[in-house]
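Schema walk-through. Below, the input block comes first and the output block second. Nothing else is stored per chain. Lengths vary across the set, and this one has 162 residues.
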Amino acid sequence: MPFPPAYFILPVPALIAFATLLFAFAPQVQAWSARRRGGQAQDGPARGVLPIALASVYGGFFGAGLGVILTAVISITDPGNLRAIKSLKNLLATFVTAAAIVIFIVQGSVHWPATLCMLAGALAGGYLGGHLIRVLPASAIRAFVIVTGAAMTVIYAVKYWF
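--- output ---
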């Protein structure tokens, strides 16, 4: 029995708000975490796997805010390297989206004209974003992500809660 869509739609504004706050305070959270560990690095491949896995499952069902959520989760492990964070976020989002696409194609649920339009926009945005991440200062990108996350929170809250 599939879950009702409301189970995934209703928490979207709260998830985006949480992810935006997590990203905004990632340097402080990371510093607190390092102090708690006594300054020792947390090594091993399992670091961050559970939050990324949960974000990926969510993204496969309902991708709204997936980029902000993944950026926030990844930024906790390395808040100082925004370019690496955005690159890894894009790679993870690509795999999450690809997995969902395969499932939707197999189920015959794809509306191809809309899909091709969105694909064109995603390719153009990915290319432009890849260029901008190299030339813009990290502080400008960080501010843009926070403002965009806050705007998405408000838009989705109005849409789904009111």
